[in-house]
Predict the 3D structure of the following.
Amino acid sequence: MNHHRSAAQPLAADTKPWRDASARPFLSIRGVTKQFGLFTAVDDVSLDIFRGELFCLLGASGCGKSTLLRMLAGFEAPTAGALLLDGQDMAAVPPHRRPTNMMFQSYALFPHMTVEKNVAYGLQREGVARAEIRTRVAEMLKLVKLEALAARKPHQLSGGQRQRVALARALIKRPKLLLLDEPLGALDKKLREETQFELVRIQETLGTTFIVVTHDQEEAMTIATRIGIMRDGQIIQVGEPREIYEAPESRYVADFIGSVNLFEGRVDAAAPDAMRIVTADIGPVIVPPQPGLKAGQTVWIALRPERIGLGHAEPAASNRFRATVEDVGYMGQLSVYRLRLPGGRLVQASLSNRLMDDDPISWDEQVWASFSPAAARVLTE
Amino acid sequence: MSAPAEGQGARPGLLGRLGFSGRTLVIAVPMLWLLLFFLVPFFVLGRISLSDPMLARPPYTPLFERGPDGSLEWLGDLENYALLWADSLYRNAYLSSIGIAFTSTVFALLIGYPIAYYIARSPEPRRTILLLLVILPFWTSFLLRVYAWMGFLQREGLINSFLLWVGVIDAPLQMMQTTFAVQLGIVYTYLPFMILPLYANLTKIDEAFFEASADLGASPVVTFLTVTLPLSVPGIIAGCMLVFIPAIGEYVIPALLGGPDTLMIGRVLWDEFFSARDWPVAASVAIVMLFLVVLPVMWLQDYLDRRGLKG
């Protein structure tokens, strides 16, 4: 995941300013609430976003992510709270005076204007000189690889081409903040995957701060510097894609991002170097010590499928359980196993096929599953 | 049941065997209607317009006559059309009709556009009520409504009485039997025909276009001029045609509200047919009017096609 910012890159504070407590946020959302009648679409959201970020607001439909984006664009006024962009309060600034631009989910390309006119529209409104408009539009069309189609009307373009016109039109004014509402939502799967990297390339070329609204967790994981997960109008977790995946803070996030096995259990006893949690499904589980947990407290253990090892022989690992292989799904580089626990519950495990060559596992076999204490994530909510 | 009913599909009916499909049949009905009630009368009119008037039944000369040697002789000519060109009465009537129809259409557009825009931007329960109010006058007879205007516009009518009572004027204004009254009547009568197509067009425009325009820095006025107005051109054209075309040939409104000075081609046509009983001239007046109306319509259709705005 997060391919474009390679893992080898040093974790310098200037590339990850959110890790630096003293860094000044570029966009500051402070206690923003939006109510429509009795319905609270956005509920007391506070969030800091830094210059040059590609921040994804991720959530299921109706979670309030689009409303939050529309408040940033100025199409909706917050019921409470403040939005500060580069130190300036946006409350009294109407949409047409904001230094933000938006790429609409439907693209909203003006059907009566050519590609060139659509892209030039924002500059014309600023009163930029004609010659400069021409150069900047040409540059922008080159960036999105649409030079050849400048004279076309939107209805003469394919979906992918329209998407790029919409992006070019939103970027031409060099906004401080670009808001993208489901930018890849209207594209088919293959085109969407190609375009994800294209979007990141353009964002890195220009250095503009992007806020992307999406419901597609894979898309968010691929393109984002950080992800904010929204649910019922609230931001429930913010973090880098890796953090969100490896260290979800709630069952909802663990389940929303990727696949996960969740086991309910009770804190049994805490030793200084380990903690024991008793579950009904897989027995006692040893996890690293968790500060703040009391004996007897109900918790959940989240276990990613790829963190489970399988074998015919009983492993030495402390966390192990027996299961029957119900189903094997061959996915190319890995296989996904559906395991039936003696209690009847299903557990998912995925293993690299390369590792399984010397001990192949097949349907209806009794196997041992095991995982390390560090692989288990203990959740309290 | 998935088995086809007997007689359908399995065995083609009489029409099917003759090569008629269901679709041709559906199209054939309106085509037949147009043929019978539009194209045939058009040719009858065209034929009459080539004759001369005659005190007979029918009151025009035949187009062919048998000569003394038994050969067929062509009698038709374009004399009536030459008359329309030569006599300034007809030319003035055409110009005046077009002028009155044009100004009425412009006023209907200026009044109708804001109304249509407001209805299209209204939230749902109010929108339906407003639309209903636009259509409501159709429940009353058109003639009655024109007569009602006479009550307003007369020398002793409501408007004059009110203005005299307020003291704005000393003597009653002459409003009846003026071109103004005719234009007022036309605008009033045809306003719904302007509003409805405009409304239909404006509601179809995606709200996101206006937001995109604002987002790119356009003030509400600029958004209206650069986005809303160009996108509503098909509605403007449809509404203007629905007002302009019937207004050109309007007879009742100028007859009731207009004076002797209000020259409109509908009245000329009526006079030629029923007072002068000169069918051939009346027929040629009608044919020329048809072309005056059809040509701009064809040009506009072509314009919309080229701009890719239709449909």
Remarks:
- The radius of gyration of chain A is 25 Å.
